[in-house]
Design a protein that fits this description.
Largest sheet: 3 strands, antiparallel
Number of strands: 3
Number of helices: 9
Shape: elongated
Structural class: mainly alpha
Order of helices and strands: HHHEHHEEHHHH
């Protein structure tokens, strides 16, 4: 079975299990209009798929809370490092997630590997106030022409650091237009 099928099956199974335990519609929404129920379902599906797509883009990750416990620093310090472009991460509704690919041997640390520091400098310096941590996450998860269409996160150990930085420069130049 391919990864997409595994993902879809696990998602459907988990949703079904959770739905069995949820009785809100029976107790609170029995008088809802069919159109309202349809809109609620579509909104929930959109939120779930968006959350799922961001987790796929991040890859294996750690939360800022778990990382703060591991490193003995306040989680606010880690969240600020993501916001300032010193760590790669994505802030969700309730938590900030940091992909492990940015760290040496995928072990969380206060600083990413040096090439990721340079990539982050390209993004934050090149985009200024338009910088957003999401842009680095998306760059890392998208095949880049400068890297023979490899995802930067997968190419970290396969290409020279200069190639990764060049790819970031090209992306930033395209975004800055």
């Amino acid at each position: 079975m391919d990864a997409e099928s595994i993902l879809a099956n696990a998602f459907a199974r988990s949703l079904g299990e959770r739905w069995k335990n949820l009785q809100h519609l029976e107790t609170h929404g029995s008088d809802l209009d069919e159109g309202v129920v349809q809109a609620i379902a579509e909104d929930a599906a959109a939120a779930a798929v968006s959350n799922l797509s961001w987790h796929i883009a991040l890859g294996e990750c750690i939360t800022a809370q778990a990382m703060s416990v591991r490193l003995g620093v306040p989680s606010a310090v880690i969240v600020e490092a993501v916001s300032d472009g010193r760590l790669v991460g994505l802030t969700g509704r309730y938590e900030t997630f940091l992909p492990l690919w940015q760290f040496h041997d995928q072990v969380p640390d206060k600083h990413p590997i040096s090439v990721i520091t340079k990539v982050l400098e390209e993004f934050s310096g090149g985009l200024g106030s338009a910088f957003s941590p999401e842009l680095v996450v998306l760059w890392g998860a998208t095949g880049q022409p400068e890297l023979d269409n490899q995802e930067p996160r997968a190419a970290l150990s396969k290409v020279a650091p200069e190639q990764l930085v060049w790819s970031a420069k090209v992306t930033v130049a395209g975004l800055a237009r």
